[in-house]
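ping. complex inputs:
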Amino acid sequence: MNLKGSLPLLILHILADGPSHGYSIAKRIKSTSAGVLDFKEGTLYPTLHSLEKQQLIAAFTEVENGRERRYYQLTDGGRAALDAERAQWDEYRRAVDAVLKGASIS
Amino acid sequence: MTSPFEHWLNQAAEGLPAETAAAVQEEIRAHYEDSVRDHLLRGLAPDAARAAALAELGDFEETSSGFKQTHLREGRYLKAALVGMVYAAGYLLSIPLHQLLGGDVQAFNPANFLFVLYIIHSYRILFADRFCTRRVDFYATLIVRGILVVCITRMIGWTIFHHPTITESASLNLWGMASLAERALNMISLSGLLLVSSGLIVLGEQALHLHDLNLRPLLTPLCLVVAACGIALSVFGVASTYGVSHIGLWGVQLSALTGFAACILWICLFFRAGYRKMAFAR
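pong. complex structure:
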C-alpha cells in the first residue's frame, strides 16, 4: 500500500514511544500493520531527514556493536505536529467512512 | 567490482554535498547490514539475503530524488537569491556608470557590461527554474523556462547588434527593425522576473520551513507589491515603446530596485532559517 503521504505521521507516532533508528522504524511499521503498509525502505531516510530539517525530530548518534548509529527522537515541535496530524487523520478517516457507509446504504 | 548495494548507495547519494552523502551512505549501510542479518537469521542463503535486503530498499532514483528535495533546496534558494542580488545591483550601477563613463569606450563599454548582466540574469532564472521544478509544478516551470528563453533571445540579439563586424548603419537598421521586439522582450523578461521573485518569496517560506513563524501576513503584501511592480513595468514598457522614454527608464529602475528588495528579503528569510537552526542546536 502506498503510504507516501502518511509516512511522516507514522514516523512521528513511533518516535513518540522513544528514540529509534531508521531500520527499527521501518520494521515496526511493517510488523505492526502485518505487512499491509509495505513501502520501499530507502524512501524512509529522505522523510526522516526532512522531518529533522523541519525540527520535528532531532538526530543523535550512539555507538552500537562498535558502529556509530543515527537515532532519532521527537522534539516538542514534533509532539505538537503529531497531535495536529492525528486530528487531521481522524477527520479524514471519519469523512471517508461516512462516504463509504452512505454508498453501501444506497 | 562494485557490489549491487554499493552501486545503489552511490546512486542514491549522487549529487549531494560530500559530507551529507557520506552520512547518508553510512546510515543506509547500517540499515542494509541489519536487514541482511535478519534475512540470514530467517534461513536465507547469503546471496538471497543480500538480494532481499536490496529489494526492500526499493528504487534508488526515488530515494535520490527525496534526498535532493531535502538537502539541496535550501542551497538552491540561496544561490537564486544571491545571483539575483548581483544582477539587480549590477543593473542599478549600470545606469550611473553609463552616465559617467558611457562616452569613454576604453573605460566603460556598456555593451559588454550589459552582456555580463544578461548572463547573470540567465543564471538566476536557471536557478529559479531548478527550484520551481522541484517545488511547484509543470506550469510554474513552463513560465520560468519561457522567461529564460526570452532572456537568452535578448542576449543573442544584443551580441549581434554590438558585434564588431556589423557596421553602424547595418546595426541601426537592424536595431530599427527589431527595437519593438527588443523592447517587448525586455519588458516581458523584467516583469516576468518580478513575478518569479514574488513567487519565490512565498516558496522560500515553504522551502525553509518557516510556516510556524506565521510570516504570511508580512510576505503576502510584499509579494503583491513585487507582482504589481511587474505589471506596472509592462505598462511603462508600452509607454516607452510609444516614445515616453523617461517613463520607461524609470520603470526599469523601479524594477531593478524592487528585484533588489525581493532578493534581500529572500536572503533575510534564509538567514532567519539558519539562525533558528543554530538556536535549536544549542
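The interface with chain A takes residues 8, 12, 23-24, 26-28, 30-31, 34-35, 56-60, 62-63, 65-67, 69-71, 209, 212, 276-277, 280 of chain B (CB under 8 Å).
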